[in-house]
Specification:
This protein is elongated. Helix content is 72%, strand content 0%. The chain is mostly helical and 270 residues long. α1 packs across α3 and α10 runs antiparallel to α13. The relative contact order is 0.14. The longest helix has 37 residues. It has a single domain, classed as MetI-like (MetI-like fold), CATH 1.10.3720.
Length: 270
């Protein structure tokens, strides 16, 4: 009961964030790049709900639009990494033998290399941008998914219903999608939730370092990057609000993952 209440609370909090960012174009009180030079560094108030930045841009509007960019990049990159991980791990686990050995040695070699090196290498090639960041995070976030898919396929392919399906001549793709993958979704869902939190963190971190989303595109990471000097002159609101939303979003996603893992404990192997 407690796990279910926690899950409902954190899902509601995350859902509220998603709704606010999804409808950012409607809820924004000002154009995100509109500069009001008469209201530079205006504190939160009636004219600007969460204040303005060093160019007089409305923080509330940029916060919503920035969340839309950050969460879109995170969501699409996780979908990409999920697809790559399922295909790679599925082939390795289903085929087995020397194919599995070779693919796992390659995967272990990739895992041993710090992910930051991959990210910086792809960043140098793709030159950032919203879609570039999506591909970069997606191409470097599929390792855990592949390992889980492989282990689940190995565990399930010796089940009686799979053997019966093979005996009756069921095509391999139907066995993989209808039996193996479907019965692997519980642990895959949990790891995908965690990957989403990691993707948000990576996007924010790279943009905060100035090597992620271009500064001209509002994102939560870019807002923190631009707020570094503003905090020193007392404009605390510019960095506080995106920082709070980043913290609550990642916290919500992680707690949802924990709640899902606890609710499924004993029914699947994560």
């Amino acid at each position: 009961m407690k796990t279910r209440k926690n899950l409902v609370f954190w899902c509601s909090l995350l859902g509220l964030t998603l709704v606010l960012t999804l409808f950012s174009d409607v809820l924004a009180t000002h154009p995100v790049n509109e500069m009001d030079l008469d209201a530079v560094y205006a504190p939160p108030g009636e004219g600007h709900l969460l204040g303005t930045d060093h160019l007089g841009r409305d923080v509330f509007s940029r916060l919503l639009q920035g969340g839309k960019v950050t969460l879109t990049v995170a969501g699409l990159s996780v979908a990409l990494s999920f697809a790559i991980g399922v295909i790679y791990g599925g082939i390795s686990g289903y085929v087995g033998g020397w194919t599995d050995s070779v693919m796992m040695r390659i995967l272990e070699a990739l895992i041993s290399i710090p992910s930051l090196i991959f990210v910086l290498a792809f960043q140098a090639i793709m030159q950032g941008g919203m879609w570039g960041m999506t591909v970069i995070i997606g191409m470097t976030g599929w390792f855990t998914t592949a390992r889980i898919v492989r282990s689940e396929f190995i565990r399930l392919k010796d089940a009686e219903y799979v053997k019966m399906a093979k005996m009756f001549g069921t095509p391999a793709w139907k066995i993989i999608t209808g039996h193996l993958l479907r019965n692997s979704m519980a642990p895959l869902f949990v790891v995908t939730i965690y990957n989403l939190a990691g993707a948000v963190f990576i996007e924010v971190s790279l943009s905060f370092l100035g090597i992620g989303i271009p500064p001209s595109v509002p994102s939560w990471g870019n807002m923190l990057y631009n707020a570094q000097n503003d905090i020193l002159i007392g404009a605390w609101w510019i960095g506080l609000f995106p920082g709070m939303l980043i913290f609550l979003t990642i916290l919500s996603i992680n707690f949802i993952g924990e709640a899902m893992k606890d609710s499924g404990r004993g029914r699947f192997h994560a």
